[in-house]
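Amino acid chain
________________
===
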Amino acid sequence: MPELPETETIARDLDREVAGRRIVGAHVEKGDVLREVAADELARRTAGARIGRAWRRAKLVVLDLDSGDRIVVQPRFTGALLLDAGDLPDRERRYSTLRFQLDDGRALHYRDIRRLGTVALMTPERWARYSDTLGVEPLDPAFSADHLSDLLRGSRQAVKKVLMDQRLVVGVGNIYANEALWRAGIDPSREARSLSRDEGARLRGAVVGVLTESIAARGTSFRDYRDAAGNEGAFEARLAAYGRGGLPCLRCGARLVDTHAVDGRTTVFCARCQR
């Protein structure tokens, strides 16, 4: 967390709110979240830069600057990008690790309770090298049924691990891997190469469907995820697998299994109707 729907929501919010705004100062409170840049260099290179757009790549929120640099934020478990017009609650401001002061008087905070996320400043060349290590975007046309089937056919790993491998498919984490596999009726522990092309197509449709629906609901909030305005997402109420271990399967009524055996992460599935 946040995964693709949450970072997509944040990026869209920020693009609407801060595109065209100029950064007048950067203030770092907790330098351990910085990557590839020191605090003084971050302040120097961003001062006076105008934000061209905010967008998402994988589980990253990217701010393009007119200087050519890109601010690249990976929120991980408890990170959030929060706009502050002077009304940000103290409970959020307390965990602000850095803030960008904008020319309209607002501030953009990177809040991270556990400080496991990161903020980097990358040149275009560095960004290109980094982005090239990431896999296909599941909402892009390139993520076809044939493409996913080819990825699955080449792996002996559990299908859930393949879905979550950011070198292959980006943006899908534990929540949405559980949900997509439940929707597709596929056992998360199955060897990826054992899936037929029809099953691969079904899984591709489930991945795209659950991500698209979660974006429409502005993501899933269990604890720490907030959008740029500090609001929670609403998709939790629509989860069929994740967080429902021990409860009845919404499809067949069998008790959902909750295990850590597949990949060391919480895996929830129906042993009766996921095959």
About this structure: The longest strand covers residues 51-57.
